[in-house]
Amino acid sequence: MIDYGTIERIQSAAQIVEVVSDFLTLRKRGVNYVGLCPFHEDKSPSFYVSPAKNICKCFACGEGGTPLHFVMKLEQLSYVDALKYLAKKYGIEVKETEMTDEEKQAHGDRESMFILNSYAQKVFSANLFENPEGKTIGLSYFHERGFRDDVIKKFQLGYSLEEKDAFTQQALLAGYKFAYLEKTGLTVVGENNYKADRFRGRVMFPVHTLSGKVVAFGGRILKNEKTAKYVNSPESEVYHKSNELYGIYFARQAIVKQDRCFLVEGYTDVISMHQAGIENVVASSGTALTQGQIRMIHRLTTNVTVLYDGDSAGIKAAIRGIDLLLEAGLNIKIVLLPEGEDPDSFAHKQNATAFNEFIKENETDFVRFKANLLIREAGNDPVKKVKMVTEIVDTIALIPEEIVRLVYVKECSLISGVDEGTLVRAIAKKRQEALLQKKKTAYPEAANPETGNFPDESQMPPPQEQEDYTGFAFGKTSSLDNYESTILRYIIRYGEIDMANIKEEEDIDDIPKGETKKEPPLFVIEYIVEELKQDDLKFSNPAYQQIMEEVFERYKNPDFHAEHYFRNHVDPNISKLAVDLSTDKYIESKIHSRYKPVPKEEKKLFDLVPYVVINYKNALLQKRMDEISAAITEAERNGDPEQLVERMKELAIYTQKKKMIAPFLRERIIG
Ligand SMILES: [Zn+2]
Q1: CA of 47 relative to ligand 1 center, distance in Å
Q2: Domain extents for the chain?
Q3: Which of 277, 262, 357 is nearest to 308 (CA)?
Q4: Which of 216, 521, 644, 648 is within CB 3.0–4.6 Å of 239 for a Cys-Cys bond?
Q5: pTM higher than the cut 0.85
C-alpha cells in the first residue's frame, strides 16, 4: 500500500484542469472551465472544472470530484491505481509495500484482469525481442513492414509462440489464477477441459484504454493458413469492443493539441502514421463506429477527418458509419488516398509535412463529398435521381444545427439542381419523423398504436423535483439523514465563516460608514460543534459521524480548514462525500437560473445554522419519543408495571425538552 506522505504529495500535485484535459477538451468560461461530460451522453457542455477549488462536477448527471475521483470513476480504477496513475503523471515516486494475500484477494476481478493483461503484454513483447522464434518470425515481419524498433516498443507490440499453451503455462507458473486467464480470453477452454492459448504464432497488438491500460489484444497470423487473419480478445468485464478505439491512448494529446482526429481502419494504419510523425490518429478496427467511440472522440475534438483507401469498394460501406458522426454534431472531412494506397502504405512514403500537405489539398467536407458521389452515380437516370435526393436529405437531416443544415441545402441544391424549398421541406419532415421515433422508443407504452399520438407533457414523467435552497425540505418528512448532511454541509462549506458578523449585501447601504457594529465572533463550525457536544449527539450515518469525530478533534486548531481537510482526506469515500457536500445542487441552480435570483445562502447563515440545528434536535427528540411510546405499548401488553413507570418518566422528560425548544422552532422563518 502507499504511505500517507506520498498520498498527500500526489493529492496536492494533481491539478484538476490538467488531469481532466487528458481526457476531454476544456474551454474557459469565466473562472471555470467547461467541457462535454464523459459520464453521460452530453450534447452541450455540462461538465464544470474549477481550478480554484481543484474539483470538477457535471451539472447534468452529478458526477465529479477531486482529480483522484475523476480518474477513479472515468477509468474504473481502484483508489491505489488512481493514485499511481496521478503519481506517474506528476513524476512522483511511489514506494509501495508488498500486498498481502488478503489485499490481493480483495483487489477485485477487474483489477486482476488488468494486471494479467499487462503481464501478458510484457510476455509477448519479451517473446518478440528475446525469443529466437519471436525474433525470426515476429520481429522480422514488423521490420519488413517498415516499423522501427522505437515504434514497435511504443505500441508494445509482441509475439505469441506457436505452441498449444506456452503462455497459459508461463502465467500459471508466475502465480496468475486460471480463472482470470479464462475471463480475459487469453486461454480458451474447450470440450473435455481442453485448454489452449487463444493466440498462437501471431504478432500481437495490445489495445489500450484512454489511460493506457491494456484491455485486449489483436493477434495477426503470419502464415497462410485457413484460419482468420486476425484473432481478437473476446468481450469481457474489462473489454467492451464498442467502447474502445485503437490508438486513443497514444493519440489523445495530439488530438487535443491539433483539435482534430484522423480516423483510419486498421492497427497498422495507426502505427505507420505515428512513425511518419502524425500522432492524432485512431482506428475503428474495421467495424462501423459506435456511439461509445464517437463520444470518446467528441470529448477531445469536434473535427474528424476520415482517411479512405483509394479504391471505391470500401467507400460506400464506410459512408454509412459516418452518419452517426454527423448526428453527434461533429465536423467530418474525407480524404481519399491515391489509388492503391492505404494510410499504412501511404504513410511509409511520406513524412508528416508531406502527408499533412496532401490532406490539406485533398480533404473534402463529408456532406459535399457524399452529395457529389451520389449525383455522379445518378447521372441522368430519373429513378436514381429520386433516390439520390432522398439520401442527401437523410444525411443533412441528421445534422443538429439548423444553420449548418441550411448551408448544405444551398450547396446541394446548386449541384443537384433540386429546388432549395423542396429540400428544406423534405429535411423538416425527416427530422420530425426521427423525433417521433425517438419519443416512441423513450415512452413505448405511452404511444397510442392507433393514432400514433403521444400523451401531452403532463403525462410524461415529471422532471426531478427541485429542492429549496437550504438543500432539504423542512418539516415532518425530513429524515435525520437530511439534517445530518445539511449540518455537515454547513461545516464543510462555511465552517470558517463568522456568522455573527455577516451583513446582507443590501443592508450595507443602510449603515453609515464607520458605524458598523461588530458582534463577538461566532464561527459556524464552533457553533455546531458546541451545540452537538452539549447534548452529546451522534450522527446516525456512520460516514457522517466519522467526519464529525474528526471535526471535534481538530476544530480548535487555527490551521484547520474543514473543506480543504476533508476534500483531501485519505479515505476516498470521505473526500468524495466532502466534494459532494461542497458542490451541491444549490450551485447548479445558481448557474442555470439566470432569471430567478437565488437567495445567497451564506448571507443567511446566522438564521439558517441555528434553525437547522434546532430542527435536527427536534427530529431526534421526536424519534426518541416514538421509540419510548412503542416501549410503553410493549410494557402495557406484557403487564410489566416497572418498565411502564420507567418509560412514562422518560417520556415526560422528553416531552418537557420538546416544549422547551418549540418556540425556537417557530421563531426562525426562512425568507
Ligand atoms: Zn454528466
Answers
A1: 6
A2: 4-89, 108-239, 248-434, 469-586+599-671
A3: 262
A4: 216
A5: no
